[in-house]
Design goal:
The chain is of the alpha/beta class. It has helices spanning about 30-45, 65-70, 75-95, 110-115, 145-150, 155-160, 170-175, 185-200, 200-215, 220-230, 230-235, 240-250, and strands spanning about 5-10, 15-20, 50-55, 60, 100, 105, 120-125, 125-130, 165, 180. The two termini are about 25 Å apart. Belongs to the enoyl-CoA hydratase/isomerase family.
Length: about 260
């Protein structure tokens, strides 16, 4: 199915693994195209409720494929950056949550890939960084925008301008990742979080993702108005009736699309 990815669906979870360990899972044009295709599959498959994205071997994704980039013209380079940015946007745009299981190096495009995911859980062995200025360029897959939103304007500039690598604990301290676990527990922890989310009303999870992703770029009052609009579909759903009845009856809810 894919040449550069492993793709498997099990118990409602889509497992997507970037599988180029010899190149530390570098994001080539081909990998980006396959990720785009995998995201469509995730969004269109009714059996899939959530996705876990990781890398094969000792890297999550160690960056974009420099061997492809070195001889590009300026216009060609911009086109590759636009392709990468579209894939990162695609992760945010699909209805279903995506969890990044950051198992190792998440550098450059790899850090940008993790940041586009809804939740980031890191192995203690993970390393993060935006080293693009060492190559004479800047992050081009959304890093200059998502990193400051996650860690703050000053820290975002610091990491981008110094190209400093940070470990998982520092990434957790500054808010770049949500959890840090032992390497052997990484996938199990991601599955635990995934199953917790899957137990909730799917229509509410979708609405929450839309409200957060779109509202974070707005002023608070406009964002609250957007939130009010996003509340409409869940409030009109059978899942809302079931969820509230279950709460009052002190039982677990049985949602339609669980």
């Amino acid at each position: 199915m894919f040449e550069n990815l492993k793709y498997e669906v099990k118990d409602g979870i889509a497992y997507v693994t970037v599988n180029r360990p010899k190149s530390l899972n570098a994001l080539s044009k081909e990998v980006l195209s396959e990720l785009d295709e995998a995201l469509d599959k995730i969004n269109e498959d009714p059996e899939v409720k959530i996705a876990i994205l990781t890398g094969e071997g000792r890297a999550f994704v160690a960056g974009a494929d420099i061997s492809q980039m070195v001889n590009l013209t300026g216009i060609e380079g911009q086109e590759m950056m636009k392709q990468g940015a579209r894939v990162m946007n695609h992760i945010e745009d699909i209805d279903k949550p995506v969890i990044a299981a950051v198992n190792g190096f998440a550098l450059g495009g790899g850090c940008e890939l993790a940041m586009a995911c809804d939740i980031r859980i890191a192995s203690e062995k993970a390393k993060f960084g935006q080293p693009e200025v060492n190559l004479g360029i800047i992050p081009g897959f959304g890093g200059t925008q998502r990193l400051p939103r996650l860690v703050g304007k000053g820290m975002g500039k610091y990491l981008i301008m110094t190209a400093e690598y940070i470990d998982a604990q520092e990434a957790y301290r500054i808010g770049l990742v949500e959890k840090v676990v032992a390497p052997e527990d990484l996938i199990a922890e991601c599955e635990k979080v995934a199953k917790t989310i899957m137990a909730k009303a799917p229509i509410a999870i979708k609405a929450a993702k839309i409200a957060v992703n779109n509202g974070i770029m707005l002023d608070v009052k406009t964002g609250v108005a957007l939130e009010g609009e996003a509340c409409g579909a869940p409030f009109c759903s059978e899942d809302r009736v079931e969820g509230m009845k279950a709460f009052l009856e002190k039982r677990d809810a049985k949602f339609e699309n669980k």
